[in-house]
Amino acid sequence: MPFDAPLERLKALHPKRIDLTLERMLRVCEALGNPQDKLPPVVHVAGTNGKGSTLAFLRAMAEAEGLSVHVYTSPHLVRFCERIRLNGTLIDNDYLADVLNRVEIANGGQALTFFEATTAAAFLAFSERPADLLLLETGLGGILDATNIISAPRLSIITPIDYDHQAFLGNDLTTIAKQKAGIIKPNCPVISARQAHEAETVIERAALKHRSPLSVMGHGFDAYRENDRLVFQDDDALLDLSLPRLSGPHQIDNAGLAIKAALALNFSSDAIDRGLQTAVWPGRLQALKAGPLHAALTDKASELWLDGGHNPHAAKALRTHLDTLGSKDPKPLKLICGLLNNKDADEFFAAFDGLDLDVVCVGFSSDAATDPATLAAAAQSKGLTETTAISPLDAVRAVQTDAPVRILICGSLYLAGDVLALSEETYPT
């Protein structure tokens, strides 16, 4: 691809140790003419889990409203272009190469993290292509995240805060929440998910300090499932809506955040409902129905699910989804799992305590993938039946039985990307 060479050169500039700072980002953007000051109205999103799903709902609602929308998310699953969406379409290869080359020239060979470089390139592209709205996801944390050089977003959204990236963000929820709440800007409305008490307190204090109007799910507004519909209510609205297209009970809350944001942006209820029905976010409780892994199922009544959830909070959401499926249609459960070596495998597997399931541990295309045997030992320590396999395809073949089974492939977005790269179900353009 034409962008491969500049990406590799920019990777080589990555500092030996990541020190979270905005100085490098501000320096390179100033050399580029400060594209961060020439963006469409921004919805800035931070949090531990649910950022991508919330933005997928909001993007679908905005497009149903007839708006042109830019989107920045990370990481990608299959192709780097997935990170930058311009007016509804993934950035094309040549334009991506162009903006990356310009970032490289502006940086002049100085230290720059890979995420800083690619964020600067995204800002450059977003500033040069008109749009009605930019949906902007943080990469790591908030206060010192490369995306946080924008000065006045239209809205800030904070999804559920939990434990992840502790080496960079801290080892307790209060410290982690302070990082995430760093996206709150003066007089900018803030919408928050349900939070643990420590995180909610931090967010409330940050909003008060910046005189930013704050709405918290469960207090000022709420969303819940009732009679196979999604009901949303706040002080000004009571909406009877379609259930989200994205699977899992946790998507009700993600949809609720998007609905609250959509109402703040004056979207119609019709656009909101159509957005719920059309949102797409690959690798998040995605039912795989094509490709070699699906073809390997010996009983076509078996189910194959894929999710990139990789921390304890995500594992709890997966557990709830499996419980919901099992209550309606019991099937033997098989978990195919791969985790990065900086993730808490013990806490991840603890979420599945009490479930009768078999775990097959696999590797994937990352140098930081946990060795399958090490991962299997962690599963065994939580009382789970475990084994290992060379690949997801071998794992799917290994867990077949004479009866239909329910298989969940999970643990890392890198693993999800490997699976989607094998699948005929490619990332939507």
List keywords for this structure.
single chain, 429 residues, alpha/beta, UDP-N-acetylmuramoyl-L-alanine:D-glutamate ligase, Protein-Tyrosine Phosphatase, Chain A, 8-stranded mixed β-sheet, 6-stranded mixed β-sheet, 17 strands, 38% helix, globular
Would you mind describing this structure in some detail?
It comes from Asticcacaulis endophyticus. Its EC number is 6.3.2.12, 6.3.2.17. Keywords: ATP-binding, Folate biosynthesis, Ligase, Magnesium, Metal-binding, Nucleotide-binding. This is Dihydrofolate synthase/folylpolyglutamate synthase. It is a single chain. By secondary structure, this protein is an alpha/beta fold. The chain has 2 domains: 4-278, Mur-like, catalytic domain (UDP-N-acetylmuramoyl-L-alanine:D-glutamate ligase); 286-422, Mur ligase, C-terminal domain (Protein-Tyrosine Phosphatase, Chain A, Alpha-Beta Complex), CATH 3.90.190.20. It is built from 16 helices and 17 strands. The strands form 3 sheets. Strands 4-3-2-5-1-6-7-8 form an 8-stranded mixed sheet, with helices on both faces. It has a 6-stranded mixed sheet with strand order 12-13-17-14-15-16. The protein has a 3-stranded antiparallel sheet with strand order 9-10-11, with helices on one face. It starts with a helix and ends in a 7-residue tail after the last helix.
Q: What would a concise description of this structure say?
A:
Helix content is 38%, strand content 16%.
